[in-house]
Write a structure and sequence with these properties.
Blueprint lengths: L1 E7 L4 E8 L5 E9 L5 E10 L4 E10 L5 E10 L4 E10 L7 E10 L5 E10 L5 E9 L3 H9 L4 H17 L5 H18 L1
Parallel strand pairs: 1-3, 2-4, 3-5, 4-6, 5-7, 6-8, 7-9, 8-10
Helix pairs in contact: 1-2, 2-3
Length: 195
């Protein structure tokens, strides 16, 4: 298990991007406190899991001061008996007016035995805030798959394209071009196995 704890001071910005391919039991816990006005934390992550692999991401972002900003975008693809977990909590402390937070977690399940547990959570003690959260779990869109197949794209390639498109906005968050391309290459390799 990997645990990370950060304190972001006034005007500080933190960007964390995570890519995982699971293991027998992979767990990451991240706690971020926004301690001063203008502090920001932006998190994104992707996971591609197959077999009996497991990936668990737990985040807790605490807006301790007003006029702070946080975003979270985590996307998972699970096949076989794989299990993806995302538990994200945002706490806005009393008096942290002007805090702005959004968290989104999505998963695609590619098998009857695969599982995704997504739990975004808000805990708000201030009055004037802008906070949103959401979660969605589903399968590949049948109409999109049909559209690609009708244009002569083989099914496994069409599935791979749709999975890549599903993960792309989380990958695009990585500012460093070399790191972004490295993650994209590793994900494409993993997607070939499960598509």
């Amino acid at each position: 298990m990997e645990e990370v704890s950060l304190h972001i001071a006034k005007g500080g910005k933190y960007r964390g991007h995570f890519a995982g391919f699971g293991s027998k039991l992979a767990r990451m816990e991240l706690v971020i406190a926004l301690e001063g006005e203008g502090a920001e934390a932006h998190l994104s992550g992707v996971a591609v899991l197959d077999g009996k692999r497991h990936s668990d991401v737990t985040t807790h972002v605490i807006h301790r001061h007003g006029n702070t900003n946080s975003t979270q975008l985590f996307k998972h693809v699970a096949a076989g008996h794989a299990r993806a977990i995302y538990q994200g909590k945002v706490t806005v402390a009393k008096g942290a007016d002007g805090s702005d937070s959004s968290q989104t977690a999505k998963a695609l399940l590619l098998g009857d035995q695969s599982e995704a547990d997504l739990k975004p959570e808000l805990e708000i003690f201030a009055d004037d805030v802008k906070c949103a959260h959401g979660a969605a779990v589903g399968d590949l869109d049948a109409e999109s798959l049909f559209y690609l197949r009708a244009r002569g794209i083989p099914e496994s390639q069409a599935r791979g394209l749709l999975l890549q498109a599903f993960l792309e906005d989380a990958i695009a968050e990585i500012a460093n071009i070399d790191q972004r391309e490295l993650v994209r290459t590793e994900l494409l390799t993993a997607l070939k196995v499960i598509a």
